[in-house]
Amino acid sequence: MASEDWKTRITKVSAVSKLPEGEACLVWVYPAGPEIGKRVELDGEELVIGRGSDVDITIDRDSVSRRHAKIVQMGSRYRLIDLGSTNGTYVNDEPISERNLSDGDLVKIGNAIYKFLSGGNVEAAYYEEIYKLTIFDGLTQAHNKRYFMEFLERELARASRTGRPLSLVMFDIDHFKVINDTHGHLTGDAILKDLCARIRTTVRKDELLARYGGEEFVVVLPEADREGALEFAERIRHLVEAQPFTFEGDVIPVTISVGCSYTVGETVTVSQFIKEADENLYRAKRAGRNRVAG
């Protein structure tokens, strides 16, 4: 997915200071960048969020309106109000005009996502969120690349030691740039999130789904041989193709191409294992996309 240059200016940001009991904050969870994990303390009666220079919380992104939304404190409650923004304001992926916020809500302003934390456990919840940001992708809630690399290294060592099979499935969305260019990056983000939600239904507890980068994802399959990996790959390919994705009234057919690698007790490095899956992924693309290679 094409990258977007951005800056964020936030008033009253604190990474480590302790919030008084019962107060609330927003924590930046997506996209990744220098501001990830930073928090905005909600200690004003009204805080306006937008791209303009005259707001309280500034998010310098094209998808954010100059005066996009505001948060109003009413006693112990916090109410999020959209200010007629171009791309809308969302809470937990639902478009809102006004809504009271609850602890743990995900607030989407353009394509920036915050988590709202409130109540007497704000400090503990904040540090728990920081930990999650080190292992999960903020948009899709799949594990991130760093966690995947560590997990795969452990599983390869275990497979070599025990002589048991291990497979890696790598896939990405066909013509994703065309989807972004045609429907916009907000639609692209929604597809990435929904795609992971679909794939997650097929991933067992001992397996791992991770975002490798952009629109590229991986699934590590302990105990799966070549036949098992190809069967899994075909299953997720069909799962994506079978039902179009929808966002803001748009219906978008999506397909994926999939590449697999596998080992049964051999000594294989992480980079070799990934390279084999990646080469098979591009074999699938060269063969016409929307197919499995391995």
Explain this structure to me?
This protein is an alpha+beta fold and 294 residues long. The chain has helices at 122-135, 145-162, 176-183, 185-200, 226-242, 270-286, and strands at residues 7-10, 13-14, 24-30, 39-41, 46-50, 57-60, 69-74, 77-82, 89-91, 94-96, 98-100, 106-109, 112-118, 165-173, 208-213, 216-222, 245-247, 250-252, 256-264, 292-293. The strands form four sheets. Strands 2-4-3-13-12-9-10 form a seven-stranded antiparallel beta sheet. A six-stranded mixed beta sheet has the order 1-6-5-7-8-11, with no helix packed on it. Strands 15-16-14-19-20 form a five-stranded mixed beta sheet, with helices on both faces. A hairpin with a 2-residue loop joins strand 7 (69-74) and strand 8. Helix 3 (176-183) packs across helix 4 (185-200). Mean pLDDT is 91; it is low at 1-21.
**Which bin fits the share of residues in helices?**
25-40%
Number of continuous helical runs = 6
Kindly report how far apart the N and C termini lie: 25 Å
* Overall residue-averaged pLDDT value: 91
Runs with pLDDT <50, length 5+? 1-21
Element-by-element helix/strand order: EEEEEEEEEEEEEHHEHHEEHEEEHE
Structural class, judged by helices and strands? Answer: alpha+beta
Could you give the order of strands across the largest sheet?
2-4-3-13-12-9-10
Number of extended strands: 20
Q: Using the CA coordinates, give the radius of gyration.
A: 21 Å
Q: Tell me, what's the shape?
A: globular
Q: What profile does the largest beta sheet have?
A: 7 strands, antiparallel
Beta-strand content bin = 25-35%
